[in-house]
């Protein structure tokens, strides 16, 4: 499965959250990380982005919640790239069979985003435009991956996010316990193979050193 990760951030270079996610995404096979800039896309860049959308099996829109929405550069990219004839036409959506994921980070606790809470609005309400976008284009929308107060997370919470983010990018159904278990089994198998290869290499090195030592001892006896 090929995943296109579209990242919009007002200060990407200074974001510890996005740096963490970028390093984690690099471990996922067949995932493309696309950082959005400040300038409007050229015609060639639009064509390239549209080709990336067509080629992707999963499109992940990734951003911090900024004034209760995605940063302006995300909407600018969507307006330029997701146009009639590319993602929809008069007969309906043209992205049927693909999935849409949202990875959203918050500077406040998620408990603030509820009716009667500090922010007075729910996360579902804030992300409703993306659900409408998915319906319009024929995408199947995944439950969003929400990251709250990354800087205050514990080491264990960072470790959990490290796993969940990889699963979100790569599993057909990231919330499926069966698929999560299979993913862990594959990871353990791969790590086991690497460990075995390292062990064999060490044994070969030790064997070579032992033979060299024996040869030196025998040479000394002859002398």
UniProtKB/TrEMBL annotation:
GO MF, one annotated term: NAD(P)H dehydrogenase (quinone) activity
Keyword presence, Transcription regulation: no
Keyword match Oxidoreductase: yes
SUPFAM superfamilies to which the protein is assigned, alphabetical: Flavoproteins
Domain called Flavodoxin-like fold: residue spans: 1-160
InterPro entries hit by this protein: Flavodoxin_fold, Flavoprotein-like_sf, KefG/KefF
The entry's keywords: Oxidoreductase
Protein name: NAD(P)H oxidoreductase
